[in-house]
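Q: Hi! First time asking for a complex rather than a single chain. Here are the components, and I think there are two in total. Is that enough to go on?
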Amino acid sequence: MTNTKSIGQLLSRGILSENPIFKLALSMCPAVGISTTVMNGVMLGVAVFFVQVFSSVTISLFKDQIHPRIRIPTYTLTIATWVTVIDLVLAAYMPGAYAKMGIFVKLIVAFAIITMRLEMFACKENVKDSFWDGVGMGLGFLVGMVVIGFVRELLGSGTILGYDVLGFKPLLFFILPCAGFFVVGLMMAFFNWIEVFYKQKRGVRS
Amino acid sequence: MKDILSIVFRLTLTCLMAATVMGAAFIFTNKAKKHNEHVREERTMYALLGYSEAKPAPASIVLHQIYRYIITEGERQYVSYLIPLESGKPGAPPTYSLISLDLQGKMVDQKPVAIDGEKIREREDRDRAVMAAVGPGKDVHFADHTIIVTENGKRIAYLLGGKFPGFKTFINVMLALDPSYTMVGLEILEHEEDPGLGAEIEQDYFKNQFQGKSIKTLKDLKVVKEPLPAEYQQALEGGMAEADMARIMEKYKDKDIYALTGATISSKSVTDGVKGMAKKFAYRLDILDNILKEQQIAVSF
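A: Yes, that's all I need. Here is the structure of the assembled complex.
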């Protein structure tokens, strides 16, 4: 990776062309398990966002001090530290949401997307780029979770953010775990189709 | 060898840094977390008394905290109550006193405890203050926490916190009794029963079965393995008109507790636990009230 990327490129790469859920297909287990409502998606997305940004910056700051043989343990320690901090903050200031999400917040330690970004990007690039890469990837995950949550909540329980919009429950099936796979799969196909379509159009133009 | 040393050194340093960051975060958030716990606890208490955010408790309702301690001195054991004293003028901060009784229910002594209304809620601060009050050489052990609720100086309810063994670990509950020791409500605060089976103890249709049971019924309350009658279930879940609900609740008032399907042990441990808590509390409070009357100790409740 070269050091010539602009902030906009780093951000859009995380959200669009390398979206953690739809393109990289990483951290599928929370994407499938937790995204039954928009609110759940937002909560976990925000937690992952902060952990990703803080961990990327930390690793980037200390990249020269990390012994190459213990890269992964160091990453895990860093992530675990920030997850604990986020966990404590959520428990202290958002007790209502934490009561529902608490167990999933602790699971962020094992999310593949964060470790992967540290290994692929933060340990090679400077602090500023790592920060924006973390922001982009975190936002990408957040957007992915919200979109999946939106579809599943709307079709599964007929509500959005807890407000009844449809007045009935179209397909209860969508809030069950197996539907998570269907929604993620269909969305992947949809995003790939958009990308192909966009590239073709641009190709014709040039 | 040099590599190994370097790895050990770096990993140790990483761990130390991580510990510092986590420790700092803990210190910063601990206060807010404790505050949340108190808010939650208080909300549970008011919910048990029938108040909610939509229907806040009037200012005439006051909660008086009483903490029971077991104090051991060599062979002898005392039961001590940390109680708020009558402050004389309204609005003044309460002063606390530790009243020790021996196992025969005779008063041993009364000692002032230097603690304020905020610190008394923190277990560590409270334990320290009690230890300072009883002097060295005694073993102080916190037993339980009771709240006496008064309205305009008249007792309207008792709130009892406590825990007892469930199917897996301890079940932490709070129950409300009225002045004649009739159950007003039960709230399950913490438990680790199996989801879908024992965890159903926190559902309305189980815990509300305790409502309205008098102390006489409670004393030999049993668990029956029979299906819950449909009308009773509906009344317990609150899905009907109030008059009908009161009629059905009245009808089942003296009946035993219907066990949860597939969770007889959890049902039984909750029933026995609640039974024990209410029974022991009624016995202890009568003794304490007698002592307070005999010794003419002016308490705030």
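A: Chain B touches chain A at residues 3, 6-7, 10-11, 14-15, 17-18, 21-22, 25-26, 29-30, 32-33, 36, 40 (CB under 8 Å). Let me know if you'd like any chain examined more closely.
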